[in-house]
Design goal:
alpha/beta; Rossmann fold; Alpha-Beta Plaits; 2 domains; 8-stranded mixed beta sheet; two-stranded antiparallel sheet; 11 helices; binds iron/sulfur cluster; 4 iron, 4 sulfur cluster binding; iron
Amino acid sequence: MKKVYFKAINSYSKTEEISDAAGKLLKKVVEEEHISLEKFIPLKVHFGEKGNNTFIQSKNFTGIINYLKENNIDSAFIETNVLYRGERTTREKHLKLAKDHGFTELPIIIADGEHGEDFEEVEINKKNFSKCKVGKEVANKKQLIVLSHFKGHILAGFGGAIKQLGMGCASRGGKLAQHANSVPKINFFKCKGCSACAKKCPQNAIIVNRKARINKDKCVGCASCMAICPQGAIYHSWLGSMTKSFNERLAEYAYAAAKGKNHIYITFAFNITKNCDCEGHDMKPIAKDIGVFASTDPVAIDKACLDILDKNSGRVVFKRGRYTLDYGEKIGLGSKEYELVEID
Ligand code: SF4
Ligand code: SF4
């Protein structure tokens, strides 16, 4: 049975305690699970969309960074570009936002390049995908420390380690594929025929004849064109995303990002909002703060977060999305059975 290590902390305002606990939990999981550490281990984070004020701030990660330094391990913050248009759509904007949000303690790697064009296809041969587009700089690392914020998510139901792995490590095209529309669409009313998308497309799949048109047979769904269009004319349809198969696709992408790796998962259950950190506006928590969790199993750590949330709340808080755990367990991503080990 997998172990999930846990430190209860009842307020996100206790930054020093949270940071200290996260460092101790990392040490505990490394020692108890006999994990060999790589010489360079990036920290997978979420910088929070501009205007969001409930993402987990980097000052909570100092204990983890210090532990790595003490063990002569180099690190960086690592993230991928997002699918929708915002302040994290391109590498340049992403780096600026990360710094504005205080992620200055380590260098920053945007794993899928300038616009999402850098990815590796990881073979998994599962029900929905035979291959997954994982951000290149994630795919070529042997080990990550996956730092997740536990909260709700409009499509996935809830977001934790699996979401951080599956959606968070996918290139922009991988994100598009998980949303079931691997070929973007063009709004002909918005398109000005500037050809910027056609010049960027790595497959020469876009033809511009006054208006742009995508050749579906050539398009590989990398989604770079969505980021580049100055008119915001290239989009994907959310139709079909809110289905059980979305949870399956998410779990399969998580499986791809973890395949053959030696990742460690640390989850921060604070600021538990209904929706996720990609939403660039003020949100209020819907449950009490819980604490910090660590494990080598992304399914077990998500299950532990949900179980304690429900127990503390006296009700089932995030009803949707629990199928992700069932399906994740079925495909070998991890185990729903776990032992909770509380640390002092
Ligand atoms: S970049 Fe946008 S506006 Fe320019 S041709 Fe492509 S779709 Fe049209
Ligand atoms: S049209 Fe080209 S740039 Fe756009 S998603 Fe398809 S392959 Fe990528």
